[in-house]
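Postdoc handover notes: sequence design on the structure in folder B. Input tokens:
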């Protein structure tokens, strides 16, 4: 089968605030090349909880004039393949991100579930939470103050990458309240509020790709706010997300679009979770042989759609104003079926102009001299 990196031509596819304002109510495979081969299908992680699926980061040291520079597979992934590895987790102390950044991680994503787990399982939030509640904050307002502090601190750590890449990488994502998933204007208001209170150039406001929120994406982009559009499961919804991004850029009225960027988070493994059950219900040898293949096949079609939509006269007109492509972000890349290889949704989807999220809690580096 072809690799994502070989799909070069379009193909028509089948600063911290002491007190925040009140928030608004709320079938293509590509394995790693030889030099990028994973040393193991497991990544040793520093964790308080076990990790079901992970990657081992294999490092080397090289450099000139007697200096030694740590190199990892993640560095090569970005420099040789054009894919940015992002960390799909965030908790205190945020300084735990530093060794991950040194190992090649180039961004962070978060969501309400990640923060719920972080706050409820760690003592690191207790003092600030207690002070907020004793100061008269309600629970939801206190939650957002905890979240905004973490996001701001993480943005500071990744800002050098953002600056070095001229806004191409180094982003930290924070999601609007899930209660707004069916509220178009409420989502726009929440995105504006989060963007204002976080007040960092490298923050992504995360908006779900629900039918009600796709129009929100257009409106938020038109305001010059960068967006991570999440929870994309189908090709039709992904195309609607791309169109919302393009419509937003065109409606912005900005002469320089270079600082308005976006990623589209396309969920992978959960597709197989659904399709595999249907194949097992059919039960024929032919059907069973297709298990574990639908998700990557659909992801490949998504990449073809990406190539098609970000080419041609409409896109070229936006490029002249500095517009950047809305990169595909491969989300839900950990296997849900323990019988599958840990890298089933990682190695096949290495390709240029994409982001891949990895869930690691503690990273152990293995050096080769």
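Designed sequence:
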């Amino acid at each position: 089968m072809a690799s994502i990196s070989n799909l070069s031509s379009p193909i028509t596819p089948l600063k911290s605030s002491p007190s925040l304002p009140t928030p608004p109510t709320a079938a293509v495979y590509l394995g790693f090349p030889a030099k990028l081969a994973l040393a193991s299908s497991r990544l040793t992680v520093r964790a308080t909880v076990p990790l079901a699926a992970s990657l081992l980061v294999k490092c080397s040291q090289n450099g000139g004039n007697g200096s030694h520079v740590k190199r990892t597979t993640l560095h090569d992934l970005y420099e040789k393949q054009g894919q940015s590895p992002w960390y799909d987790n965030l908790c205190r102390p945020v300084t735990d991100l530093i060794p991950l950044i040194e190992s090649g991680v180039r961004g962070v994503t978060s969501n309400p579930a990640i923060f719920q787990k972080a706050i409820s399982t760690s003592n690191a939030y207790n003092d600030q939470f207690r002070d907020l509640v004793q100061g008269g904050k309600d629970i939801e307002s206190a939650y957002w103050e905890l979240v905004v502090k973490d996001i701001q601190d993480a943005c500071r750590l990744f800002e050098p990458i953002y600056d070095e890449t001229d806004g191409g990488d180094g982003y930290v994502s924070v999601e609007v309240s899930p209660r707004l998933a069916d509220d178009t204007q409420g989502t726009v208001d929440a995105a504006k509020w989060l963007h204002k209170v976080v007040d960092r150039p490298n923050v992504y406001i995360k908006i779900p790709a629900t039918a009600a929120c796709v129009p929100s994406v257009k409106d938020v982009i038109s305001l010059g706010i960068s967006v991570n559009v999440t929870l994309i499961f189908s090709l039709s919804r992904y195309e609607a997300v791309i169109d919302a991004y393009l419509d937003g850029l065109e409606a912005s009225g900005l002469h320089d679009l270079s600082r308005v960027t976006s990623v589209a988070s396309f969920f992978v493994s959960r597709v197989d979770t659904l399709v595999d059950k249907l194949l097992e219900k059919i039960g024929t040898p032919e059907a069973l042989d297709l298990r574990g293949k639908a998700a990557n096949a659909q992801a490949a079609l998504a990449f073809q759609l990406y190539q098609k939509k970000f080419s041609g006269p409409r896109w070229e007109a936006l490029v002249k104003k500095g517009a950047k492509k809305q990169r595909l972000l491969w989300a839900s890349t950990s296997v849900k079926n323990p019988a599958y290889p840990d890298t089933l949704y990682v190695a096949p989807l290495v390709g240029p102009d994409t982001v891949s999220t990895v869930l690691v809690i503690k990273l152990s580096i293995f050096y080769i001299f």
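Context for whoever picks this up: Residues 7-18, 25-67, 360-369 have pLDDT under 50 and may be disordered. Don't rerun without checking with the PI first.
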